[in-house]
Amino acid sequence: MSNAFAMIAIWLGAVALNTVLARRAGRLPSVLVPMIFGATILVLWEMACRRLAVPAVILPAPSQIWSAFAGNLPLLWGDFVQTILKGALSGWLIGAALAVVTAIAIDRSPFLQRGLLPIGNFVAALPIVGVAPILVMWFGFDWQSKAAVVVVMVFFPILVNMVAGLKATDALARDQIATWGASYAQALVKLRLPAALPFLFNGLKITTTLALIGAIVAEFFGSPTRGMGFRISTAVGQLDMALVWAEILVAALSGTLFYGIVALTEKRLTFWHPSQRQ
């Protein structure tokens, strides 16, 4: 009972502290509030697991997950390189590049506007658990098949946003640059691509998490003896749930860092857009 009262007191104390900090302006309170909230959740999680003697198979305590994380760093690093750097990142870059080039082609061709986008919506609706084993059979068990799955997952969200961005330029600006005798390439580089950047980055940010999910899920259908999806499936079979949570921790940190890099790049390149103004 005393443990329950301690948990309630910790929660109420954290809520009160965060309420005070949230009312203050500045960078420090905006950093402290989520840190205090996250630390509170971890403390309560640890106390609940110890107090209720929750089996590690059901829910390991944060201390057990950290022990698995710290004790398997070389293994987790190898899985990170295989899944995130080779599978997810390469597939995301290839998919984004293909989507941008295709969007420019669609912008130039009414036929592609009417023909490709409906097909794109159809392909985007295909279930990844059905597409992944097919691509694994086509491209092999190594990272190339995972990159192919990621390309399929990220291509159409980026394409749709990029097409919308290319159409977002003001008609008066298009008429003005046309009166200056600018070619399509000049209008594209100086007017339409800059105007499309906010839309492009919306698609890029959305697909950062899709890329990680696609690469990890694809490994369930065939992979060499490394990779986050492979490790999770084998660790579940061995009831080593602390290692499973350690892999989840790596995936969460990687996804947060990935999203943060894209968001920071967006802030630097689209500083002129109203959405970036304080």
Automatic annotation (TrEMBL):
Residues 81-266 form the ABC transmembrane type-1 domain. Gene3D superfamilies: MetI-like. Keywords: Cell membrane, Membrane, Transmembrane, Transmembrane helix, Transport. InterPro entries: MetI-like (IPR000515), MetI-like_sf (IPR035906). It is a multi-pass membrane protein. Pfam families: BPD_transp_1 (PF00528). This is ABC transporter permease. It comes from Paracoccus aurantius.
